[in-house]
Amino acid sequence: MRALESAIGRGERLAFSAMSLLEIALLVQAQRLELTGPLEEFFGYLNSDPAFCLLPLTYEITIEVASLAPLRDPADRAIAATARVHRLRLVTSDQRMIESGLAPVIE
């Protein structure tokens, strides 16, 4: 979270894979992630704040997904592929993603 807060403080734009939003929705639904308000409100905030940019799944990203066999989770593959295609660094605490070395990570 410090990396996110620091980036926001510097006025940097933050990009999210569409798959990350899907994972957030599923985690909230399964009560494994708690938000301070309704999910719709959280997504509305992300959508309206110019500091955030949603990156959709594209043909190029889905082709990249196929090359990321070390990651078994399809969502993790899509998130890493999005970072690779857009030449971005990931903000994650997922040890498998970090240890895979498939995309640069902000720790």
Gist of the model:
By secondary structure, the chain is mainly alpha-helical.
Describe the structure.
- This protein is mainly alpha-helical and 107 residues long.
- It has one domain (2-106): Rossmann fold (3-Layer(aba) Sandwich), CATH 3.40.50.1010.
- Helix content is 51%, strand content 11%.
- It has six helices and four strands; from the N terminus they run αβααβααβαβ.
- It has helices at 2-9, 18-29, 39-48, 59-65, 74-85, 95-100; strands spanning 14-17, 52-55, 90-91, 105-106.
- The strands form two sheets. It has a two-stranded parallel ribbon.
- β3, α6 and β4 (105-106) form a beta-alpha-beta unit.
- The longest helix has 12 residues, at 18-29.
- It is globular.
- It starts with a helix and ends with a strand.
Task: Provide the descriptors you would attach to this structure in a database record.
107 residues, mainly alpha, two-stranded parallel sheet
